[in-house]
From TrEMBL:
It comes from the Bacteria. Belongs to the peptidase M48 family. Pfam families: Peptidase_M48. Keywords: Hydrolase, Metal-binding, Metalloprotease, Protease, Signal, Zinc. This is Peptidase M48. GO terms for biological process: proteolysis involved in protein catabolic process. InterPro entries: Mito/Outer_Membr_Metalloprot, Peptidase_M48. GO terms for cellular component: membrane.
Length: 279
């Protein structure tokens, strides 16, 4: 254990009572939203926590035989990596070089979901790719997930959900049970929902990121929500279980895209169609 992480863990644990008072005042029975940008974790702590969550997530889906290996799915990953790289290289990420930003496919056609851990490990279920109609929609959903990581929403949410001291124990590898809870929560297995504020910000940055690609229609994420709404409320995509859908979400994404002037781009669908076939 490095001295820096030990020192930080002690500081975080000591600060837990103070931060709990900030996030959850005694007079308020329900937790209030953390101030936007409030995050007692350092960027290095985001990376350390994300690495542990990614390891747990990999193990979870490997045990189920669902984590798709790059060695056996080279072309599918080549096509997906190209989309991810365009979104990441849009010029507007704060932690483009600090976070690892890798992407992994989970073979589950019944699950229409994607998520990102702290520190930028991205997971995409095959069911989401097969649910979508075009590459701009995929880029839009990926942009949304990348925004959650780059805007550091995940650690802000986890601080509120679990407390600073408990998260510090996870970072130091001392709480495997909570690590499993975090991985399951981000994957949608258990309930761990982003706030309306975080969802709105991730939607907004998705349009900004896609605009920066100069390639994708930057209202791509709206296409997903439109299709999800048409599918009906009886069996909504799992993405909505971890990403609650305010009623004005589609309009907000489309309005942002119109302001940016990037709604009419059409990158073509050949590569996306090939990716769907390969999955």
């Amino acid at each position: 254990m490095s001295r820096r992480f030990l020192t930080l863990a002690v500081a975080l644990t000591a600060a837990a009572g103070l931060s709990a008072a900030i996030i959850k005042p005694a007079a308020t029975p329900e937790p209030i939203e953390p101030a936007q940008g409030f995050n007692i974790f350092s960027v290095d702590q985001d990376v350390a926590l994300g690495n542990q969550v990614a390891h747990q997530t990999d193990s979870m889906y490997q045990a189920k035989g669902q984590l798709m290996a790059r060695s056996n799915n080279a072309r599918a990953y080549q096509l997906l990596d190209a989309v991810v790289k365009r979104v990441l290289d849009n010029g507007n990420l704060k932690y483009r070089t600090q976070f690892p930003w890798d992407v992994k496919l989970i073979k589950d056609d019944a699950t229409q979901n994607a998520f990102a851990t702290p520190g930028g490990h991205i997971y995409v279920f095959t069911g989401l790719v097969k649910f979508l109609d075009n590459e701009s929609q995929l880029a839009g959903v990926l942009g949304h997930e990348i925004a959650h990581a780059d805007r550091r929403h995940s650690t802000q949410l986890l601080q509120r959900q679990y407390g600073i001291g408990m998260l510090a124990s996870v970072v130091l590898g001392k709480n495997q049970g909570m690590l499993a809870q975090i991985a399951n929560g981000l994957a949608g297995v258990t309930s761990l929902k982003f706030s309306r504020t975080f969802e709105q910000e991730a939607d907004k940055y998705s349009t900004i990121y896609l605009n920066g690609t100069k390639y994708y229609a930057c209202d791509g994420a709206a296409g997903f929500f439109i299709k999800a709404e048409k599918q009906g409320g009886g069996n909504p995509p799992e993405f909505l279980s971890t990403h609650p859908n305010p009623g004005s979400r589609v309009q907000a994404i489309q309005g942002s895209a119109r302001q940016l002037g990037c709604t009419n781009r059409n990158p073509g669908n050949n590569n996306f169609a090939e990716l769907k076939r390969l999955l």
